[in-house]
Amino acid sequence: MIALAIAAFILTDLFGKMLQGGGPESMTVGHIQGERVSYQGFNNRVSFVEAQYQRQGYPINDQTRNSIREQVWGDFIFEKAYQPQFEELGITVTPQEIKEILQGDSLMRDSQSQVIQQLTRTFKDSTGKYSPQMAGSYWTNIPAPQRNQLREGIRKDRLQKKYTSLLQFSTYITKAEAKRDYTNKNTKGDFKFLYVPYSSVADSTVKVTDAELEAYMRDHADEYKSQETRSLEYYALSIDPSPEDSTKFANLIRQTAKDFAKAENDSAFAVINSDDPPNMNFQDPTKLPKEIWETVPTLTKGAVVGPLNNKNTYTIYKISDTKADTANYYANVSNLLIKADSTMKQSEQDSARRKAEGILKKLLDNPGDFENQANTYNTDGTKGKGGALGWSNLKTFVKPFSEAIKGTDKIGVIPKVVKSAYGYHIIKVVHPSTNKLYKVATIKKTLLPGKSTIDEAFKTTDKLVNNSKTLEELRANAAKNPKLIKNTAPKLQPSATNLGSYQGAREIIRWAFKDETKVGEIFKPVELSDQNVYIIAALTGATEKDELSVEANREALTNKVRQEKKKAQILEKLKAAKGANLESIAKSYGSLAQVKTMNNASYDNSSIQGAGFNPLAVGYAFGTTKGAVSKPVGDQTGVFMFEVTKVTPAGEIKDYSKQQKELLTRAQSLARFYIDQAVRELSDIEDQRYKFY
């Protein structure tokens, strides 16, 4: 179990050379540090871990398989990017360290490590703490191959911890840095500012040309280098069950219910006939599905409930067995409470009792009004629910309340007011108290389209593709069929798995990223059988890594260039505006210029109240001389001018060690993330797994 949990760390040294594999460049899943990772070598390692899972009884589904691939890819990065640095720096892990981590001082176990967290969960004593003795016993008794895997997982984790710590603890904060941080946070200023938002200039008045977009993109190339993406237009045809499918299924589910009632081995029958594995454990009434009680108020052994339909999933329940709960009683009741507690005067409590008695008298004459009265008087979570508490364990109620319920075996309003510490209760019994536990065999079956229906859907989509040689033809032909729903999936990443709400669309995405797939091409119909849909996809756009493409960034570029042109217009108009102070300048500019105040601002402010995120403008404000009007400056949301009302300097303090410690803690907490990010960037990692999976 523990060896499996740390599979991401164990493969490299034990199986790396054996499972490397070779082959042509076309069979390459990626490059790390200029070294090729072959599909054969990668897939062999994935298969090895899958076999480990299966040997220990774990099912292999798509989610597990994807997780394993991520683990193995991380293992390759560890081997090719990190390991050479460990060797160059002389970082090692001794057998004694591994022993100490497993069986020794807790200081050797890093609580942030996933491996250590798994060890702690696995070797936990009765108090919930890590048990070195349990770990030592496990180490001694497991077979050598598993011991090697565990050793390797701990070794790799420890190597990475040492490497990260080496860089983390090389971080140092100077007194000057601490002083600057203190000054930035504690220098306060009050300002008056003139603000002209970019939104004051209508978009329609600012024309942006492709040449301007191209020029801006070239000047800011680092901001607009593309990731490798593909954009798709796709049409979804839902495969709905036909009337014939529905009739056939209805006959089947009714016959299944009849056969279920006669079955001698309920659990075996349910396992064979249910889409989902049944839970055959004894359950108390609070755990049983609500629809059972709504359909059959009294449950006896052998009773069959259903089939019940919920969105084309039909459920049949059979009470397979019952037994007594020796410790608990359960009941389904509703409660109407007139509050009266010890904080109230006696006269108020007496008044509450009389009110409750009056309501009870009316309800005994008209029990059907209970829900309405409960909604009127209750103030807790049952208000609006007719006072319904549902099935509950009587131990969860105060004693007078639970004793009143246990004291009756009748359905309806209990003919007496019950006093508790909360007040006066009127109780309606929906199901009397019971100590029965129920073993319920459950069959769930979903109405699905039959083979002929699926075949017909394929013929429809296949004909559409064959009759559409271009994207324009596909659009025109699809428009003739109202059952085809048009969708778009812009800028998909190579590792994407979904198309909008449709999951597991890797076949389509792999096609889109193939070198030979060109924009405008249409893919074959793809059935997503678990979602009962056929998808027809066409490639509408493609960007390559680091490509500078106006089309790929058109929206962002247009917004930015338009903003720059608005800024230039506003700046020019403000420079022409006349006035000795902000109010007179605003009046000269026009009604779109606003004069506001910003109080108790500090250097490290990034936002201006009423104007949003504008860090440059905040810095500009503090740079303005008192008594003067600043020059206009454009930032994120508009153009600003400032007047200083008051600036209060931070002043000096004797000791900046507190600030140094805070800055150091912050820097070290971010170090692990930035170290990993830097290693990955410098290792020139090219991940092409999307071509195969």
TrEMBL record:
Gene3D superfamilies membership = 3.10.50.40
Q: Which InterPro entries match?
A: PPIase_dom_sf, PPIase_PpiC, PpiD_chaperone, Trigger_fact/SurA_dom_sf
Superkingdom is: Bacteria
Entry keyword annotation includes Isomerase: yes
Name any one GO molecular function: peptidyl-prolyl cis-trans isomerase activity
Would I find Coiled coil among this entry's keywords?
no
In the bilayer, the protein is annotated as: Single-pass type II membrane protein
Q: Name one Pfam family in it.
A: SurA_N_2
Gene Ontology cellular-component terms listed: plasma membrane
Query: Which residues belong to any copy of the PpiC domain?
Result: 328-431
Q: Where in the cell is it found?
A: Cell inner membrane
- List keywords of the entry alphabetically: Cell inner membrane, Cell membrane, Chaperone, Isomerase, Membrane, Rotamase, Transmembrane, Transmembrane helix
Q: Which PANTHER family match?
A: PEPTIDYL-PROLYL CIS-TRANS ISOMERASE D, PERIPLASMIC CHAPERONE PPID
As for family, the record states: Belongs to the PpiD chaperone family.
* Protein name, as recorded: Periplasmic chaperone PpiD
Query: In which organism is this protein found?
Result: Microscilla marina ATCC 23134
